[in-house]
Automatic annotation (TrEMBL):
It comes from the Eukaryota. Residues 30-176 form the FAS1 domain. InterPro entries: FAS1_dom_sf, FAS1_domain, FLA_A. PROSITE patterns: FAS1. The keyword Secreted does not apply. This is FAS1 domain-containing protein. It comes from Gossypium aridum (American cotton). Pfam families: Fasciclin (PF02469). Its main location: membrane. One of its GO terms (biological process) is plant-type secondary cell wall biogenesis. It is a lipid-anchor; GPI-anchor. Residues 1-20 form the signal peptide.
């Protein structure tokens, strides 16, 4: 009996050890915004922008922290949505404006479709303060239909691309351009400052000319 017990003990001891050796530790599953969108297959432009502005890295860092924060919601415009923009729109944006545009598509909270029904508008995005009225984003939902509006663009959520407890990605049919005070406003301000610069240059070359003229 003793022998049998000892044998049983040894058997289970080694069996246990062997099992522990065979069963690999489950790979740590880390969400990756780029691969989520790549699987979607129709977000090439948005992926490019996410990479160029380094928002992809920033989101992946957020997603890889072991302690889940409030989560992330991404409104991803499809390639079709980008081709709906006026030609040259993206190229006319500075790096800073591209960053703001991308951040405007990211909410610093995880929102499920049902949470859209009770969303408190305007929603906070990563582009910044809604209080200044610069980057307002409103969501209205009814049943399965979810609309997003910025005041200048009315978009519709076409599809839920991905969701888990950290990140939800929704496909939208339009690029969410912020109103004048946002990206476009910055473009206008840039043009004005360029004109002023040209004026100042004109003035300084006149001053140089005048100094030379006086010298003679
Ligand atoms: C995310 O996925 C892309 C390819 O899908 C890969 O190039 C990149 O290294 C991944 N990033 C992280 C942080 O895992
Ligand atoms: C969403 O927008 C469409 C028009 O694009 C409209 O017919 C529909 O009623 C809107 N739905 C909600 C919930 O706002
Ligand atoms: C967004 O919702 C807020 C609060 O309901 C409202 O004051 C604002 O006018 C809305 N903006 C747009 C662009 O729909
Ligand atoms: C967006 O929808 C609202 C009403 O739902 C409408 O008043 C507004 O004109 C629309 N804006 C654009 C740019 O289509």
């Amino acid at each position: 009996m003793r022998k049998l017990l000892a044998f049983a003990f040894l058997f289970f001891f080694f069996w246990d050890k062997t099992l522990a050796q065979i069963a690999p530790a489950p790979p740590l599953k880390v969400d990756n915004i780029t691969s989520i969108l790549e699987k979607g297959g129709q977000f090439t432009t948005f992926i490019k922008l996410l990479k160029a502005t380094q928002v992809a890295d920033q989101l992946n860092n957020q997603l890889s922290t072991p302690d889940p924060n409030d989560g992330i919601t991404v409104f991803a415009p499809s390639d079709n949505a980008f081709s709906g923009l006026k030609p040259g729109t993206l190229n006319s944006l500075s790096d800073q404006e591209k960053l703001q545009l991308v951040q405007f598509h990211v909410l610093p909270t995880l929102m499920s479709t049902s949470q859209f029904q009770t969303a408190s508008n305007p929603l906070r995005t990563q582009a910044g303060d809604v209080k200044g009225g610069k980057f307002p984003l409103n969501v209205t939902a009814e049943g399965n239909q979810v609309n997003v509006t910025t005041g200048v663009v009315n978009a519709t959520v076409e599809n839920s691309v991905f969701s888990d407890r950290r990140i939800a990605v929704y496909q939208v049919d339009k690029v969410l351009l912020p109103p004048k005070a946002g990206v476009k406003g910055a473009v206008v301000a840039g043009a004005v400052s360029l004109k002023f610069h040209a004026l100042a240059m004109g003035f300084s070359s006149f001053a140089v000319f005048w100094a030379i003229f006086r010298g003679f």
